[in-house]
Design brief:
This protein is 70% helix and 4% strand. With 215 residues, it is mainly α. The chain folds into two domains: 63 residues, Winged helix-like DNA-binding domain superfamily/Winged helix DNA-binding domain (Arc Repressor Mutant, subunit A), CATH 1.10.10.10; 140 residues, GntR ligand-binding domain-like (Four Helix Bundle (Hemerythrin (Met), subunit A), Up-down Bundle). InterPro entries: GntR_C, TF_FadR/GntR_C, Tscrpt_reg_HTH_GntR, WH-like_DNA-bd_sf, WH_DNA-bd_sf. One of its GO terms (molecular function) is DNA-binding transcription factor activity. This is GntR family transcriptional regulator.
Amino acid sequence: MAIERRPLRDQIRDEVLARLRRGDFPAGQDVNEARLAADLGVSRTPLREALIALEIEGLIQSRPGKGFRFAPVSPKEYRELCPVVAALEALALESSDPEYLARTAPKLLTMATEFDVSVASQAEIEQRDDEWHDLLLGGCRNERLMDLLTTVKASLRRYVHVVIDDETEISRSAGEHKLIAERLISGDLAGAVEALKANWTSGTERVLEKLTRES
């Protein structure tokens, strides 16, 4: 793992989060601290500090006498997270610089139109979705809001395997991305905000059904 001029615990936290997003750690799996520390090339002290930070974010759970485990997924949590992320992203979009949105909307439409889900891997789909939403909200200067959004979305990422595995959900999301961009291009910010909320909530029931079957 490359060492940067940041606290080691922060670097470890980011690396563990990246691996969690890739699906390297199944939800509910125990954390083997010794093995993970050796794999990352770090001692267990900064690793534990990173795991505690991830516990605060809801991605890791600690159990007395049993150590850490990756938080399990549940239909209840997913149902609660989606409207929270929808509300936070909607607020960020409403708070964005209008000139930034006007400049960026055509690029957002191009990204949504050109992406071919049928030939993309899971990692590519997730990356493109992240890039699209990051670009959409790049004009929001409320740092507290964006930090809060990052933290909440980190918990939601544990469910990405369920969403990305459903081609209907991916196609629906791509169409909604186009609609958001089109409304921004036409100057309809309120319409874009409503479409953004729907992007996070309209497929909730389908995903919940799948989570219930898997649990």
